[in-house]
From TrEMBL:
This is Aminomethyltransferase. Belongs to the GcvT family. The lineage of its organism: Bacteria, Bacillati, Actinomycetota, Actinomycetes, Micrococcales. It comes from Isoptericola chiayiensis. InterPro entries: GcvT, GcvT/YgfZ/DmdA, GcvT/YgfZ_C, GcvT_bac, GcvT_C, GCVT_N, TrmE/GcvT-like. Its EC number is 2.1.2.10.
Amino acid sequence: MTTTKSPLHSEHLALGAHLTEFGGWDMPLRYSSDIAEHRAVREAAGLFDLSHMGGVSITGPEAGAFLDHALVGNLSALREMRARYTMICADDGGVLDDLIVYHNAPGEYFLVSNAANADTVLVALLERAAGFDVAVRDISAGQALIAVQGPRAEEILREVLTEDPEISGGTALDDLRYYACLGMRFDDESVLVARTGYTGEDGFEVWVDVPHAVPLWRAFLTAGEPHGLVPAGLSARDSLRLEAGMPLYGHELDATTTPFDAGMGRIVKLDKTHDDGTPVEFVGRAALAARRESAPARVLVGLRGTGRRPARAGYAVVQPDADGAPGPQVGTVTSGAPSPTLGHPVAMAYVTPEVSAEGTELAVDVRGRAEPFVVVPLPFYRRADA
């Protein structure tokens, strides 16, 4: 199968990265060791290439109203130079993808999707744009996305990028809030900087035009080295997001799962209205309204391992019998791994409501052996200043 290469592909090869196919892209899995990269992000900083993510521009006088119709969130209420996590759902309420939407200027929005779902999202948006005065454009090919994540991220960012009131959107870096963005400069080029991320740490995601991606990547590596920054791959990103309790499409989210199933009903704005006060009949609204009122068939929970063997995606969650052998299945693991930060296995799983209470002792069938786990709140890890 042919894979797409990142604009930073040659940089990854030069750094000795182990590459893997991910969402149709050839991306770095790791550069050194998974644990070393994970710990660098928790203790100092990690540098990630996220150029595989999809990017869609939404522009026009009805851009906000269109996004209210196409997505589950109230995006017309999103202030300029702010970002919001949201989802795009099918008519039946199933999640097609989880997204971040940026409001860059009046009538100008920028939407980021997962690599594997980029085509699905683009097709759905184009279909839903009928009747709205908007332009929907795929701009993925012209952009690279570089993330600096970790407690030293802001120091490193300041050494590489400069503030410019003409493109900042009226926000200084000192005042940049979580899920907000501003324009900055790299040399003479403008870049979009967002205080967002997928690691549970403070950090920034930087959108840059492709011709300037390699110089920016190298500048971050050079400036970050004295601060302990290392390049980090997909493996560390996955263990970091799992500790932070962040869902991954294809694991916690899919087309058979609604936001309510995933414990994220708060992002579904059933009460959003048009200017005249009438409800916005966004795609999936009827199904999601019905789902909100129904009893859940399954609940997404966190599981803390009390043994040493980790659970993995797809493993059965069971109630162990008196001898400790696997008993009746009560759920399925969606994501699981050893936690480098906490020192014990962690997992997310969908389980039946009857066994979803905090403190419930369960087990995961790991190759025929009932490994002990207990239900705990999500996230597993939260940074001290969050």
